[in-house]
Amino acid sequence: MSPEEVVLLCGAYIFLHKSISSKKKRKRWWVRNYLLRRQDVLSDLCMFDGSFINFLRMSKSDFEYLLQNVGPFIEKQDTNLRSAVTAETRLAITLRYLATGDSYSSLSYTFRVSKQLISRIIPEVCKNIIRVLKNYIQVPSSEAHWKEKAREWNELWNFPHCVGAIDGKHVVIEAPSNSNSDYYNYKDQFSIVLLAIVDASYNVIYANCGAKGRASDSGIFQETSFYQRMVEHRLNFPNQETISPDGPDLPYVILGDSAFPLSENLMRPYPGIHNRGTMKRIFNYRLCRARRVVENVFWNFMRGFSCIS
To answer: Is 0.85 surpassed by the pTM of this model?
Structure first.
């Protein structure tokens, strides 16, 4: 006898026993009636692409692409007692949570899924999104690819020999148990740090997430594999070249703010205040304008997904 049949037999016995002992009591359902209409939510959203984007922060085509890749890992089988929550609904619940930070109770009424089940769905789906998309962000692997990134920076932001911009973002979290002050940051909040390097077209080419909020952006970056490969010249950066006919050979660099250490391939602004019109003032302006791309990327992240605000 299968486990489902055992459960069904036990349920039938309990139901029969309660019916005989107290016929006046209303019988309890395994699934509440309003929860059975959970598919109506996505069906209504799919009618209007604008509503879909506002609700899940992505287009229907992007959602379908993500579902196609993640779906096989989060899909559950129906049982004799109830229909499983579909992979489509599981993914939508998780994206809505990441987009708004809604409580499980609020999501329960929106999607007509119990909050107890939602508390299991969201961690599982997040884990499988990472599993499927962990190789989606790729660091350029060849000299030609890095030169293409540099060409984009020069054309779009008028900063030659730049191949990326780096910054860090504190993501507020609840205080972990027994964490002491490791996650307590300078803003008097508990957080982890999202570190990202982006190209001139707002694409993330490297990300590191999970460092303790107490650490500085510089300290976190120096512990990453990207930094180790950079200082050991294993990233295949192009060789130093001139940017003007009579100028010196200059390296290809990543742009950071004053929190990052100056190195051969990591450029930061000149420290201090400089007079208007001086070379250092102009250089700092050009660097900060180009580096604004990574700040805009984080702003777009926060606007779309409140979980990282």
So the answer is: no
